[in-house]
Specification:
3-stranded antiparallel β-sheet, 11-stranded antiparallel β-sheet, 5 helices, 231 residues
């Protein structure tokens, strides 16, 4: 089984030369806990803002896009030619021509894609929510998690949540009810099939991760887009 090479991927999509969303600032929601009480408390991707709305292909590969409804509104998958075991997955995009037909098309690195940031699904405005999804392998899990602090997950068939992590987060972001936030985190872990959440990496169970986003049929690694790929 082919192993994922993070260093090679960083070089392929260097943000200084082929930025994923050039010139677009990040919003407050990064990978980890949300800074407000809107939506699910655990945020498993990285959000970019409104303008410019266009999206650039960061490598040679396939764009698979469809209107999927639900919280994402639409699902865009960017699948690299050189490693189909990892892909960029994007929520809330719309077609540039306002169409609704599916897209399944190959693009070259640097091409402007036929989709743009939108506000469909569970969205407070035009933006993109981006996740790095990977087929689970022991090698990739070990390489990502060995120096990442464990925040939450399952231990001996019981949900574990780091209370200090919650307390520090609530204090830093003026969230008044740490115990309520803690309960919401526990509920999301259970409802979403989150097996483990660390600083920069999450594991979701294969039978709880949306099938349309899991072509591998395995548990799925979600990696922090900023920490690992700088996008």
């Amino acid at each position: 089984m082919k192993r994922f090479n993070f260093l090679a991927w960083r070089n392929l999509q260097d943000p200084e030369t082929i930025p994923y969303r050039p010139g677009v600032p990040r919003t407050g929601d990064r990978f980890g806990l949300r800074t407000d009480l809107i939506g699910s408390p655990i945020h498993l991707g990285d959000d970019r803002g409104r303008h410019p709305r266009h999206i650039v292909m960061p490598f040679d590969g396939l764009l698979v896009w469809s209107m999927t409804g639900g919280a994402w509104g639409s699902t865009a998958r960017l699948i690299p030619d050189d490693n189909p075991g990892v892909e960029i997955q994007i929520a809330h995009t719309v077609r540039r021509d306002n169409g609704h037909d599916d897209i399944d098309k190959h693009f070259k690195r640097g091409d402007t894609l036929p989709i743009i940031a939108g506000d469909i699904g569970l969205s407070a405005g035009v933006h993109t929510h981006t996740e790095i999804a990977m087929r689970y392998t022991d090698h990739d899990y070990d390489s990502l998690s060995h120096d990442c602090r464990l925040y939450a997950g399952w231990i001996n068939d019981e949900i574990f949540v780091d209370d200090q992590w919650i307390a520090d987060h609530c204090r830093e972001n003026n969230i008044e009810e740490p115990s309520d936030f803690h309960d919401r985190v526990e509920k999301q872990i259970y409802d979403w099939g989150i097996l483990e959440l660390r600083d920069g990496v999450c594991i979701r169970a294969k039978n709880r991760f949306p099938a349309r986003r899991n072509p591998w049929g395995t548990d799925v690694i979600l990696a922090d887009p900023m920490r690992w790929l700088k996008i």
